Amino acid sequence: MELPAVNLKAIILVHWLLTVWGCMNYMFPASYAWGNFSVLAVGIWAIVQRDSLDAIMMFLTGLLLTVLTDIIHISVFYPPNNSLADVKRFSIGMAIFSLLLKPVSCYLVYRMYRERGGEYTFNIGVTHAGRDRSAYEPIDQQDAPPQRPDSSKTAQQPF
């Protein structure tokens, strides 16, 4: 099933609105707002520079990092049940909804990254145990191939 094309502006607008609603009641520290709004600012950079792979990759990385920080903020600063007023419940609900929506947004932003020509593959640099020297070109030799002795003209060993 193919997902419909979603505009980057719509993703940023939805996450901006959910972040504003999540910050309504001052339940979270300032780091929640700073983290989310700074990632959204990088998203605006990705909108302005449509052909930039760096902008969209940084936005994707920021979204992935805010998933982790949002989980930490919500789990640490979630109030006890007896002190949940309606505004606090709404604010926490919007923060949780933003958190649940971020993996979908990450997938959509990754598709946009691929459409812009990005090819991100996870490579840690270890592909095989031996060294591949097929592309090795020595620089200390001149253009002429090295002279090797002919095996038929070599001196025979005494018995």
Short summary of the structure?
With 159 residues, this protein is mostly helical.
Core attributes:
56% helix; single chain; 4 helices; mainly alpha; 159 residues
Tell me roughly what share of residues is in helical segments.
55-70%
Order of helices and strands: HHHH
Proportion of beta-strand residues: under 5%
Instruction: Compute the number of helices.
Output: 4
- Biggest pleated sheet: none
Structural class: mainly alpha
Principal-axes geometry comes out as elongated
Distance between the termini: 79 Å
Mean of pLDDT: 82
Uncertain parts: none
Calculate Rg over CA atoms: 28 Å
Oligomeric organization of the protein chains: single chain
- Total strands: 0
Question: How would you describe this protein?
Answer:
Helices cover 56% and strands 0% of the residues. It has helices spanning 8-22, 30-48, 53-77, 86-115. Helix 1 (8-22) runs antiparallel to helix 2 (30-48), helix 2 runs antiparallel to helix 3 and helix 3 (53-77) runs antiparallel to helix 4. By secondary structure, the chain is mainly α. It starts with 7 loop residues before the first helix and ends in a 44-residue tail after the last helix.
Give the helices and strands, then pairings.
Blueprint: H1 8-22, H2 30-48, H3 53-77, H4 86-115
Helix pairs in contact: 1-2, 1-4, 2-3, 3-4
